[in-house]
Write a structure and sequence with these properties.
Layout: E1 7-12, E2 26-32, E3 37-41, E4 45-51, H1 61-64, E5 69-72, E6 82-92, E7 95-102, H2 109-116, E8 122-136, E9 143-158, E10 182-187
Parallel strand pairs: 4-9, 5-9
Antiparallel strand pairs: 1-10, 2-7, 3-4, 5-6, 6-7, 8-9
């Protein structure tokens, strides 16, 4: 217990993502922010890649079709790797947003429960690049391959994302203004 003159600070953060709809088995995600990452491209080798998130750079038809799959860690060798489907997708403020709907199949249930309870929060996007622009980074001189014409075709649930901000929406601390956890300070 604090002594006289000390204060107690208590904060609460939401444990489960607020965008989870258990009845509909849906959740909202941010599937990309275009963050730079190292990537192996067969024709180029190991590159530093950045995804252009401008609407004219991203071919969204496949992701918006209602047929794009939600996969378990980009696996696609077995029908059971499909956890659900992307029901909506859009670009907004330099980020890709989507609503994912999960199957009610018994083998999907453990993954869905981890998402719904906030344990599993990371996502990743599968895509193909149609064109890169290459330019040196002013700070490092390193060549950056910027995907300026690319096409997302699946969203995966992953344990660790390449893009640290690719997450189940509602993960960030939220308070009255949506940006910080609700905190109270009490002096004794």
């Amino acid at each position: 217990m604090p002594t006289t003159g000390q204060s107690i600070t208590a904060c609460r953060a939401l444990a489960a993502p607020v965008t989870v709809d258990r009845a509909a088995r849906t959740v909202e995600v941010i599937w990309s922010t275009g963050a730079r990452a190292r990537n192996f491209v067969p024709s180029l080798g190991l590159i530093t890649e950045e995804l252009d998130m401008a609407p004219d750079a991203v071919r969204m038809d496949g992701l918006r079709s209602g047929r794009a799959p939600v996969l378990n860690t980009h696996r696609r060798g077995d029908a059971r790797d499909v956890l659900g489907r992307v029901t909506t997708a859009r670009l907004e403020g330099g980020r890709g947003h989507a609503t994912l709907q999960f199957s009610a199949a018994a083998d999907v249930e453990p993954v869905w429960q981890r998402i719904a309870d906030g344990t599993l929060r990371a996502v990743s996007v599968g895509y193909r690049v149609h064109r890169y622009d290459q330019a040196p980074d002013a700070a490092t001189g390193q060549t950056i391959h910027r995907a300026v014409d690319w096409e997302p075709f699946e969203i995966s649930i992953v344990p660790i994302p390449v893009d640290a901000a690719a997450i189940v929406r509602g993960e960030e601390p939220q308070g009255a203004d949506g940006s910080m956890p609700a905190c109270a300070r009490r002096s004794v």
